[in-house]
Hints:
There is one protein chain. The protein is globular. Helices cover about 40% and strands about 25% of the residues. By secondary structure, it is of the alpha+beta class.
Amino acid sequence: MDKKIEFQDFITSVPIENQDFVKELHNKLMELGCKIEIKTAKSGYMVSYLYHKKTVANYVFRKKGMLVRIYGVHVNEYEKFLETLPGEMISAIQKAPICKRLADPTACNPRCSKGYDFWLKGEHYQKCRNSAFMFLVCPQNNPFIQSFLLSEVKAWNEGCTAFANEESKNEDEK
């Protein structure tokens, strides 16, 4: 049986200039109720953060360095935040491939989750969920990555709270 990979195993593979950031963000995500899954991949570890069994982010390793993939399901709730991103991060969003399924529902695998439909810098985008918000983890991007990811988790939290309140209300009416 494979040995369970611990956060400490992963953090030693993170570039030294990003270790404090990754630890701090990890602690905040855990405080908000996220769970972590760590697996090995060809190019290093693949670390996923899940909130109520939904993946909200992954860390992945590529030739150019460690990247974070944020699953911005609630991007429309904090769209104005995208306007504050540095040019390099905006460029990464703009260069991401379109979501074929949003453009033409028959063009992609029917089991594929649809991407994101949002506005950025006055332009309309329909981007694939797997690459829309994939950013290099580096000191200049880190504060924006943290704000982005925490906004997403908080949006999930508010959605779950609203759902729980609605369920409770329905039970009371029975």
